[in-house]
Automatic annotation (TrEMBL):
SUPFAM superfamilies: Acyl-CoA N-acyltransferases (Nat). This is GCN5-related N-acetyltransferase. PANTHER family: GNAT FAMILY, PUTATIVE (AFU_ORTHOLOGUE AFUA_3G00765)-RELATED-RELATED (PTHR43792), N-ACETYLTRANSFERASE DOMAIN-CONTAINING PROTEIN (PTHR43792:SF16). Pfam families: Acetyltransf_3 (PF13302). Keywords: Transferase. Residues 13-176 form the N-acetyltransferase domain. Transmembrane segments: none annotated. Gene3D superfamilies: 3.40.630.30.
Amino acid sequence: MPHSTAALETDRLILRAPQRADFDDIYAMWSDLAVVRHVTGVAFTKEEAWARLLRSAGHWALMGFGYWVVSEKHSGKFIGEVGFGQYKRGIDPAFDQAPEIGWMLTSGSQGQGYGTEAVRAALQWADTRWPDDEIVCIISPENAPSLALARKCAFAPSRTTTYKGKPTVVFQREALSPKD
C-alpha cells in the first residue's frame, strides 16, 4: 500500500517528497566529485542518478519512509537530500533492521548549517515514528564534515567496519525510549 511523504519545514528549509522534476538537480549533485568523494568516490552517471531518484520515491511508496529533497525556503533552491533508507548492505555485524539516515548537500550549500538543520528535522520526524529504535548512519573516516554533523546530532561511533572494500564508521543514535 502506498504511503504519503511527510513534508517538513524548518526556519530556513523545506524537506519534501522527491519529484521527477528534481532529476537535473540530483544528477548535478551526485556527479560532482567534490560532493561524492567520500561516499562513492566516483561521479554518478545519469542512469545512476535516475536510479537514486527512483529508489528514494520507492522507499516512500513501499516502506513509508525515505529521502526528502531539501531546498531553501526563501528561494526554493535545491540544496540536497536527507532521509532514511533500508539498504540490506550486508555489513557485518548487520544493522539492516535499524533505520539508516543519510545526507548529501550540494557543494555550494555546505558549511552554512543546512546539513545540521535538515538532519535534526529528519530526526524529529523519526523520533515520533520510531521512538523505540536506534538510528544508524555510516560515514567514511575521511569525511570530517559528516563525522562532525553526526556528532552534533547525538550520534556516537559504535564500530569500524568495511563497506565495498573501504573503511567505514558505523554511528548510532540511541532510541528515545530504550527497550527493556
